[in-house]
UniProtKB/TrEMBL annotation:
Signal peptide: none annotated. Pfam families: HD (PF01966). Gene3D superfamilies: 1.10.3210.50. This is HD domain-containing protein. Residues 31-134 form the HD domain.
Length: 209
C-alpha cells in the first residue's frame, strides 16, 4: 500500500475525496478498493516504464468514476468518466491540455477497435486494470460479482455464466493481452495461481479430492 499512499499524496486531497465519493454503493468487484489497487499497479508499472506519472495518477484515480452512472443508464463507464474529467481537474488548477490527456488515457482503458491504447500511459492503465482481474484478487472479484448479479458458483448448464466460465473465456486470456513488459512479468505468477486454483476447483467439484 505504500505505492498507493505515495500516489495519493501527490494529488490534491480534495480531488481524491471527490473521486472516492463516486464509489459509494459500488459492488465489491468495482469499489474504491479496486480503484486503489489499480492506482498502486499504475504507480509500480509507471515508474518502471518511465511514464508521465502526473497524467497516469490522475487517470488511474478517475478511470472508474462513471461506474454508478453506467449501472443506471447502460452507457460505457469510460465515456462517462472521461466526460467528468475537465470540470473536476479545472477546479484544482489543471490545464485543458492536461485534462485532455487524462481523458484519452481513461477512454483507452476500455479497449475498443476504434480506440486502442496508444500512448505509454494508455497502455499502463489498461494493463493495471486488467491485472486486477487475474490472480487471487481476480478470482475473488469474479465470485463476488457473480453473487451480486445472482449467478451460481457452478452450473452444469453451459449457457449459464459462472466464475469458472469467466476464467475460461476471459481471465485465462488476459496475460496475452497485456502491453507492457512490467505488467506481463507481474501477470505470470497471477496467471499460474489461477490455473492451479481452477484445476483444484474441478477436482473438488467431481469428488476427486
Amino acid at each position: 500500500m505504500e505505492l498507493v499512499k505515495e500516489a495519493l499524496a501527490s494529488l490534491p486531497e480534495g480531488l481524491v475525496k471527490k473521486a472516492e465519493r463516486f464509489f459509494d454503493g459500488q459492488d465489491p468487484a468495482h469499489d474504491w478498493q479496486h480503484n486503489l489497487r489499480v492506482i498502486g499497479l499504475c504507480e509500480r508499472i509507471g515508474r518502471e516504464e518511465g511514464a508521465d506519472m502526473q497524467i497516469l495518477r490522475l487517470a488511474a484515480l478517475l478511470h472508474d468514476i462513471g461506474r454508478a452512472e453506467e449501472r443506471r443508464t447502460g452507457e460505457c463507464h469510460a465515456e462517462i468518466s472521461a466526460r467528468l474529467v475537465p470540470e473536476l481537474l479545472t477546479e484544482y488548477g489543471y490545464s485543458e491540455e492536461q485534462a485532455a490527456l487524462v481523458q484519452q488515457v481513461i477512454l483507452a482503458h476500455r479497449f475498443r477497435k476504434e480506440r486502442p491504447p496508444t500512448s505509454l500511459e494508455d497502455k499502463i492503465l489498461f494493463d493495471a486494470d486488467k491485472l486486477d482481474s487475474i490472480g487471487a484478487i481476480g478470482i475473488a472479484r469474479a465470485f463476488a460479482y457473480s453473487g451480486v448479479i445472482g449467478q451460481p458458483i457452478f452450473s452444469d448448464d453451459p449457457s449459464v455464466h459462472t466464475p469458472a466460465r469467466e476464467y475460461e473465456w476471459k481471465l485465462s486470456r488476459i496475460k496475452e493481452r497485456l502491453m507492457t513488459s512490467t505488467a506481463r512479468r507481474i501477470a505470470e505468477e497471477r496467471h499460474t495461481f489461477m490455473e492451479l486454483f481452477f484445476a483444484q476447483w474441478k477436482k473438488e467439484l467431481h469428488g476427486m479430492l
